[in-house]
Amino acid sequence: MPTALLESMKRELDFLRRNFWDLSLVTWIPFILLAAVAVQMSAGVMRDLPIVVVDRDGSGFARELIRRLDAASGLSVAEQAPDMQAAERAVRSRRAYAVVLVERGTAEEIQKGSTAEVVAFYNASYSTPSGAALREIGAVVQAYAAQLATTQTAVVLGPGKIRRPPLAVRTTILFNPQGSYEFQLVALVHPAILHLIFMVAITSALGRELRDGTIGSWLERWPRRDAIYAVAGKLLPYFCIFMGWAVLATGYLAGFRGWPVAGSIALILLGYATMYLAYIGAALLFVGITLTMGTALSAAGLYAGASFAFAGAIFPLESASTFARLWSALLPYSAFAKLLAEQWMMGAPATDSVRQILVMLIFLLVGAAIGLPPYIRAARRPEIWGRR
Amino acid sequence: MIRRGFIAAFRAILADRTAAILLVGSAILYSFFYPTAYSGEVPTRLPVVAVDLDRSGSSRALVAKLPALQQAELVARLSSPQEALAWIEARRASAAVIIPDGYEQNILRGGQGAVALYGNGAYLLRSSTALSGVAAAIGAAGREAGVDQAQASGAPAAPALSLIQRPLFNTREGYGSSVFPGVAFLVIHQTLLMGLALLAGTIRERQGKRRLPAGDLLGIALAFLVIGLCDVAYFTGFVFWFQDYPRAQADAITLFVAAVAFISATVAGSLALASFFRTRERPIQLWIVTSVPIFFLSGLSWPSEATPAWLVALSRLLPTTPGIHLMVGVNQMGASLEEQSGELANLALLTLLYGLIAYARFSARRVGAQETLPRNR
């Protein structure tokens, strides 16, 4: 290995050993952030979401429906409110996510053999838990209706009239049969956290030399080709540490939590590696253009901090504005999120994911081509050192 | 003394380009930049492929109804389920409708024609709601098709119960309108915290540890309270209106009290944390990475009911957790202060706790002493 690379690597490791907060940023801080998300979502599915029931009917049917709602694993009837005002108050003070209203006359409708309507009001400001509660309420109502069809409607209309509706749609969720949010979210949030910390850490590492004016003593003595090795050596410890985090995060979800990898673990890790390389490209670009640590850091935060929203994995981007789609395409994380879905969940052929890897490598090439020359030149320009 | 701190804080911000950009510029930038991610607000038509294995009159009638569905867009008719799977894997379609062999036979016998709908679980969050909509729509379309075919055996009985779903508060039901009104307050929290800590770090770097009299400290806190309240006014008054998100459900006084409670806790927390920074760039470097976990911990997107109790308790130490609940509750859901009294009490306790820490940290220092230790960078 070239001496420039080895020496710079050793120099950076020494620096990390001596500086508590810089070391923290690559050690216990990522650990706490990754663990917080992993622990928070470890339940995977939402159980016992509180709902409120308003029973204006008071019949046996209504009581049975309420009993069934409370018995459903995803729901718990937190209270029975006397009227809608009280029920909405419960939702506004977040004691419940939804209100189920059983209108007066429900029992009569059922006994007549017609359809009684049950209304579910849900708090759309808290869309994830409300959506889960709503699906569960729908399932309970449907199951109860099916049972009533045999016990009640048959009595009224005669057994010959009872047929199931002519068409049933059975929905199957491919690639995530349990419909687990843990699998979906943690798999995506962990790399989102990791690439942001990685980019902030290497932007700091590169920018710090300019701020402290140490870039001269470190880089000046090397000829151009060796200077590139020196920069690579400086970033290598970060790359290795964050590959370690990638292995740990993947191992946690695939091994400890047991979410099977449908495709190739090797490709997922290769994806992590190329994603880090892509963000090295971005960091070189920002530092090379601004030549100021603070500004480059702010730009890095803006660039890598909102990836999660723009990756198109959680929110559909197809119908978003041109700007949002363009911005998404300019984020290496978007390509990584696609690769992750292909290799972890869908088990797509490797050739599909090679495309994402090539896309991410373009970021490294473009970023380094633009950012590296001015950065290396800055080693001989003391007049720009120390800018804040 | 209070006045001196108040004015000095504004002078420091105006004199420091990075701090000014962080405190003012980034809030404005984020207010336009972030909502674009959700600009596809209207639940869009899910791209769907259809595979007809039955090739009967009934199945053709059902497939013919698919392009008219409001929830789905039929992008292709394929000949085998394998082909449909390949389309889903390549993300060219989000779901596949598969009509099995024997579909018509079943309906004619008076049985149930089963149609399979396959959705992509790798994109669970974005497709689960859309899928249930498509399933319901196909069911309804198929019922008509089935009824045409099964006239002889009579129409099926109506179900005894049906469910009507009505959204409360966020009637637009978009991704953005349920996420951004929370994210906005995270942005305010993070910019105030980093801006304040950056200034504190800069002063510490240049002048060493400086003792701040209580009056000066209060003045600085008031200055940042004013900036934070301007942020809240900007987001709730302009941005939510501009983006047409649900808003202004509370009267001005309720919103003002809620905003003061949230910003006070944020400023107190920021001052306490800022007292630990010795280098200008450090707060950006260490704190910018926390945004995503802090947002999830706030419990807006992931409910506290599904979070371990000890983590919920710890998350209550962050001003954003009660703050986002309170601001979304007041501004979007029209909650009264009484209904949100728990969050208000939480914020008041945090203000007290962090205020005391900040006071203790800043008053314990020696007057005008230069830092003797080598600077830690």
What would you say this structure looks like, in words?
The complex is a heterodimer of chains A (388) and B (377). With 388 residues, chain A is an alpha/beta fold. Chain A has 16 helices and 5 strands. Chain A is elongated and about 95 Å long. The two termini of chain A are 35 Å apart. The model of chain A has no long low-confidence stretch (mean pLDDT 88). With 377 residues, chain B is an alpha/beta fold. Chain B is built from 14 helices and 5 strands. In chain B, strand 1 (46-52), helix 3 and strand 2 (72-78) form a beta-alpha-beta unit. In chain B, helix 1 (2-15) crosses helix 8, helix 2 runs parallel beside helix 8 and helix 8 (214-242) crosses helix 9. The longest helix of chain B has 33 residues, at 175-207. At the A-B interface, helix 2, helix 3, helix 5, strand 4 and helix 7 of A face helix 2, helix 4, strand 4, helix 6 and strand 5 of B. Strand 4 (116-123) of chain A pairs parallel with strand 5 of chain B.
Short description:
The complex is a heterodimer of chains A (388) and B (377). Chain A is 66% helix and 9% strand. Chain A has helices spanning 3-18, 20-26, 28-40, 60-71, 84-92, 106-112, 127-157, 181-211, 215-219, 224-256, 265-290, 293-305, 307-310, 322-329, 332-346, 350-377, and strands at residues 49-55, 75-81, 98-102, 116-123, 167-174.
